[in-house]
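Narrative of accomplishments. A recurring question from our advisory board has been how the design workflow behaves on a single, concrete structure rather than in aggregate. To address it, we present the structure tokens for one chain from the evaluation set, followed by the sequence designed for it. No filtering or post-editing was applied between the two.
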């Protein structure tokens, strides 16, 4: 065992440093003293103080990269720096070449480094260092060769004719690498036939001026010229000949081309994206990069924004949003790498107008202490979405105010007589409960006394002809059999022929007043005038309420449809309209179910029939339901026959059926329960079952479970919908020439829904 050699390990990974020490401690040939440092600055200081023999250097350090470290080391040591082995996780040829140019003896890829490899590389570095020292004391010719050595090395002697003209070169010495990797013009014998570089070789010998050049060989693939071989060559005069070193840089050149293409692609993406891309320095409070979209959206050139430096926030951010943005930046103090944080704020364009934007930011780089230094962000304009959101909120508030009014009764109805929804005031007027409504016990045609049936027929005919009717006076039966005088007006919903909305005004008090007045006033004429005036005021009031009732409902449906058509699949779009979706979700579900029920009643539901794969539809439904199941810790299993034949149907409507069944199963299954979906073929039909371990269905409710507005007896679940889903599902299955049924052993014993669909063989 020789004297101990000092090895300095500069690597920010403790586990890697410990592994390197352990590997080298097992070396039987050399004995080492280990010095460890985590940061580049500490490593440089250790080089000065300890003067190590060998340096194991990680390319990616917390405070600098390996090339920056080598620059500092070379400046500090003045040629007395230790032998360096670079450790990199990238495996990049570019990094390796640069490192070699900075004097690195060898490099290792971290993930591929074994104990044997590390000991062999360190030994080679030690032995190479000893050899270099020996060579420096030997012949100048060999010293010059070593100084120029890359990979391949050769010494050539001039061959001259009688006149002294160089007619060729003889290879006096070629190392093994040169013999294996001969370059054009650099073989054992170089003659006049080697035209490519021959004249340059002669100029080096005659003038003594060295030559350093690259030789590229090209080939063509699909009419595109590519680099097939590339060499880095250095030629120096040596006595009456030359010394040549060359290395194969084909991979480097190919990598450089790929890198250039990638950089060009990235720049194209940055310049063509509709969003603003930026890199913001938290410490310096300035943008160090911003793409060209800033000019399109705000009118500022990227260079102008970067020149604003710290004043950028005060110049462009709305004063009311400044504090929020600062708090947004502070959140990154505790944010993890890769974590994305969002924030909405306003920025002023060059004309002085403010626009709404939504940003998504993540940590791009950190300081030595781990604190975030730079943020990478994407900014999207959401001004239109903000305006839509505001309009939708106002429209919904207006509609809700009317719907929940304690003066005016509102009901949604179908032409077959069924009342599908109503506000509390309407139920108070007719004396029914919400449970009666949900049970489907209220029909407008059954509320009308026989003597008023002609009025109902006139109203219906007017609505069919004009889509709206003039207010009329009539009476309704209350639940207890008593009568209540009302004013009734209504209209069809937009895009519907059988579903409408009506308002009902209780005029009991007015009728009583009219009766009393008729008794008090002697003059029948005056009483009639007053009644006519009252009727006129009533008509105007009812007409106004009718208009205000329809407008917000149509606005809610219209804005939701506009937003749905304009949205794309980007995450930031979903984030931008999340508030709109949340505020309108309940209203949207209600209206969509009402419309489906209306279409069912009218027979206007249209299916887009095509061959569909039931397995794929079920998988999509399961994937959509999975987050809901996870939230309740419900085990969602599936057993889907992959060999089952296709069926003819509407993929979207079938997905609606299965999604509804899964949603119901999750809703009525307690936490830690189980749901299983099965698909199997029985002869020429497909059988789909959805089985849960939930609350089950009582024997009383089971026969009517597919009726409209049918729900379980649990109050909590009743508040989650109108009970239309299963009715819609039954109709959609029926349209596909299938059947659906429910099976349950009773309460708390789970439920199984069975869907039968015909299968079709492909011809």
């Amino acid at each position: 065992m020789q004297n101990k050699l000092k090895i300095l390990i500069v690597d920010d990974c403790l586990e890697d440093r410990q592994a390197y020490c352990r590997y080298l401690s097992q070396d039987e040939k050399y004995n080492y003293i280990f010095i460890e440092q985590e940061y580049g600055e500490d490593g440089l200081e250790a080089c000065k103080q300890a003067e190590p023999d060998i340096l194991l250097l990680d390319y990616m350090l917390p405070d600098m990269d390996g090339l920056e470290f080598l620059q500092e080391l070379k400046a500090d040591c003045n040629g007395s720096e230790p032998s360096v082995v670079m450790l990199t996780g990238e495996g990049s040829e570019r990094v390796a070449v640069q490192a070699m140019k900075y004097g690195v003896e060898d490099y290792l890829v971290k993930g591929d480094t074994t104990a044997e490899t590390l000991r062999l590389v360190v030994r080679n570095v030690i032995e190479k260092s000893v050899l270099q020292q020996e060579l420096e004391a030997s012949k100048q010719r060999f010293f010059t060769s070593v100084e120029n050595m890359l990979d391949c090395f050769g010494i050539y002697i001039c061959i001259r004719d009688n006149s002294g003209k160089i007619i060729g070169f003889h290879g006096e010495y070629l190392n093994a690498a040169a013999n294996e990797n001969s370059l054009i013009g650099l073989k054992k014998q170089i003659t006049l036939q080697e035209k490519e570089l021959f004249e340059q070789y002669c100029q080096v010998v005659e003038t003594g001026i060295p030559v350093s050049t690259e030789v590229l060989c090209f080939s063509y693939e699909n009419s595109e010229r590519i680099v097939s071989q590339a060499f880095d060559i250095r030629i120096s005069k040596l006595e009456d000949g030359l010394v040549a070193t060359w290395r194969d840089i084909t991979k480097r050149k190919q990598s450089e081309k790929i890198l250039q293409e990638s950089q060009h692609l990235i720049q194209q993406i940055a310049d063509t994206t509709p969003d603003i891309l930026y890199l913001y320095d938290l410490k310096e409070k300035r943008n160090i990069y911003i793409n060209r979209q800033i000019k399109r959206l705000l009118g500022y050139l990227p260079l102008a924004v970067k020149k604003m430096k710290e004043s950028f926030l005060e110049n462009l951010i709305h004063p009311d949003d400044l504090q929020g943005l600062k708090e947004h930046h502070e959140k990154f103090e505790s944010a993890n790498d890769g974590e994305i944080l969002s924030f909405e704020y306003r920025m002023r364009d060059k004309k002085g107008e403010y626009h709404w934007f939504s940003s998504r930011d993540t940590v791009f780089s950190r300081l030595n202490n781990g604190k975030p230094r730079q943020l990478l962000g994407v900014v999207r304009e959401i001004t239109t979405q903000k305006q839509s959101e505001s309009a939708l909120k106002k429209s919904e508030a207006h509609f809700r105010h009317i719907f929940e009014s304690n003066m005016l009764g509102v009901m949604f109805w179908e032409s077959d007589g069924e009342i599908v929804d109503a506000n509390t005031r309407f139920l108070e007027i007719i004396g029914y409960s919400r449970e009666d409504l949900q049970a489907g016990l209220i029909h407008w045609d059954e509320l009308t006394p026989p003597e008023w049936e002609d009025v109902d027929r006139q109203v219906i005919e007017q609505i069919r002809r004009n889509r709206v009717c003039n207010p009329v006076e009539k009476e309704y039966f209350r639940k207890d059999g008593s009568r209540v005088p009302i004013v009734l007006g209504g209209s069809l919903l937009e895009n519907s022929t059988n579903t409408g909305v009506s308002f009902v005004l209780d005029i009991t008090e007015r009728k009583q007043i009219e009766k009393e007045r008729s008794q008090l006033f002697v003059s029948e004429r005056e009483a009639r005038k007053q009644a006519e005036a009252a009727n006129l005021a009533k008509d105007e009031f009812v007409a106004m309420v009718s208009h205000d009732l329809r407008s917000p409902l149509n606005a809610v449906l219209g804005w939701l449809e506009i937003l749905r058509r304009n949205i794309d699949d980007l995450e930031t779009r979903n984030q931008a309209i999340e508030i709109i979706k949340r505020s309108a979700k309940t209203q949207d579900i209600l209206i969509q179910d009402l419309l489906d029920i209306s279409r069912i009643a009218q027979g206007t539901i249209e299916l887009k029939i095509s061959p569909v794969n039931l397995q794929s539809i079920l998988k999509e439904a399961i994937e959509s339901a999975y987050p809901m199941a996870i939230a309740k810790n419900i085990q969602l299993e599936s057993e889907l026959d992959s060999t089952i034949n296709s069926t003819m149907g509407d993929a979207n409507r079938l997905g609606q059926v299965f999604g509804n069944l899964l949603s119901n199963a999750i809703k009525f299954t307690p936490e830690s329960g189980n749901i299983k979906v099965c698909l199997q073929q029985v002869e020429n039909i497909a059988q789909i079952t959805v089985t849960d371990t939930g609350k089950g269905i009582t024997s009383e409710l089971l026969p009517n479970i597919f009726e409209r507005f049918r729900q379980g007896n649990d109050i909590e679940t009743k508040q989650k919908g109108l009970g239309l889903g299963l009715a819609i599902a039954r109709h959609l299955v029926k349209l596909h020439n299938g059947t659906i049924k429910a099976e349950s052993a009773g309460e708390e014993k789970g439920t199984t829904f069975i869907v039968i669909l015909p299968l079709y063989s492909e011809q």
